[in-house]
C-alpha cells in the first residue's frame, strides 16, 4: 500500500487496472500503487487567452481580436476522460464564438460600441463544452486591433468630430455674446440716461480716458 496527500485545491483521479475507480478529495489517502494510477486535476480558477486572430466583419473589414476566457474544472473525471484535451476544446469553442460574433457585426457598430462583441460570448462558448467537466465563468474581448490604415482613418474621424464640437461651442459663445450686446444696445436706446450714468462710472475709475463726441445738433450761443 502507498499513501498520497491531496491538497485542498486539487483532486486525484484514481484508475485501477486502467479502469476509473474514484476521485480522491483533499486529505491523506491509501491506495494500491502496483495496480493504480493517480492523475492530478487542479480545481482552481484558470484564465485562457485566445490569441488575436484575423476575422471579417459583416461588411468585409478585417480585424484582429483576442479573447480572455475564465473557467474552472467541475468534474475531474469528465475533464480527463471525455476528451483528449478539454482545455484545447475550450480554446477552440472560444475561437468559434468570437468568429461568429464578429461576422454578425459591422465595423461601424464595433467602433461605436466595442463591448457589444462580449455580449453573449460566454453563452456561445459554453454551448460547445457540454460533458467536458468544465464551467465557463466569463468570456470577453481582451483586445481589438485594427489594421494600420483603419486606425489612422478612425483617429482622423475622431479628431474631426472633436474639432467640430469645439467650433460649435465657439459659435454658440459668439452668438450669446452678440445677443448680449444687442440687448444692451436696445436698452441704451430706450433709456439714454443709462449711457450717461455708465460714462460717469467709467470716468471714476483711475487711469480711464473718456472721449466725448459732441452732439451735432448742439449750437453754441
UniProtKB/TrEMBL annotation:
InterPro entries noted in UniProt: Band-7_stomatin-like (IPR043202), Band_7 (IPR001107), Band_7/SPFH_dom_sf (IPR036013), Stomatin_HflK_fam (IPR001972)
Cited CDD domains: SPFH_eoslipins_u2 (cd13438)
Band domain residues: 1-158
GO (cellular component) term, any one: plasma membrane
Coiled-coil intervals, chain numbering: none
SUPFAM superfamilies to which the protein is assigned, alphabetical: Band 7/SPFH domain (SSF117892)
Similarity remark: Belongs to the band 7/mec-2 family.
PANTHER family reported for this sequence: BAND 7 PROTEIN-RELATED, BLL5629 PROTEIN
Protein's name according to its UniProt entry: Band 7 domain-containing protein
Lineage: Bacteria, Bacillati, Actinomycetota, Actinomycetes, Micromonosporales
Amino acid at each position: 500500500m502507498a499513501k498520497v496527500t491531496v491538497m485542498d485545491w486539487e483532486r486525484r483521479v484514481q484508475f485501477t487496472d486502467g479502469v476509473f475507480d474514484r476521485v480522491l478529495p483533499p486529505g491523506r489517502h491509501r491506495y494500491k500503487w502496483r495496480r493504480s494510477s493517480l492523475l492530478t486535476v487542479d480545481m482552481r480558477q484558470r484564465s485562457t487567452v485566445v490569441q488575436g486572430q484575423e476575422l471579417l466583419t459583416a461588411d468585409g473589414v478585417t480585424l484582429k481580436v483576442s479573447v480572455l476566457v475564465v473557467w474552472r474544472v467541475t468534474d475531474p473525471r469528465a475533464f480527463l476522460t471525455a476528451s483528449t484535451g478539454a482545455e484545447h476544446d475550450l480554446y477552440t469553442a472560444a475561437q468559434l464564438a468570437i468568429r461568429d460574433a464578429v461576422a454578425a457585426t459591422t465595423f461601424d457598430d464595433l467602433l461605436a460600441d466595442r463591448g457589444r462583441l462580449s455580449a453573449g460570448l460566454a453563452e456561445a462558448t459554453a454551448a460547445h463544452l457540454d460533458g467536458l467537466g468544465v464551467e465557463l465563468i466569463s468570456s470577453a474581448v481582451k483586445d481589438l486591433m485594427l489594421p494600420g490604415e483603419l486606425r489612422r482613418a478612425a483617429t482622423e474621424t475622431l479628431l474631426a468630430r472633436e474639432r467640430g464640437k469645439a467650433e460649435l461651442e465657439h459659435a454658440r459663445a459668439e452668438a450669446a455674446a452678440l445677443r448680449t450686446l444687442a440687448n444692451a444696445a436696445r436698452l441704451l436706446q430706450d433709456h439714454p440716461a443709462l449711457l450717461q450714468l455708465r460714462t460717469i462710472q467709467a470716468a471714476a475709475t483711475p487711469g480711464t480716458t473718456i472721449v466725448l463726441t459732441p452732439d451735432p445738433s448742439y449750437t453754441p450761443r
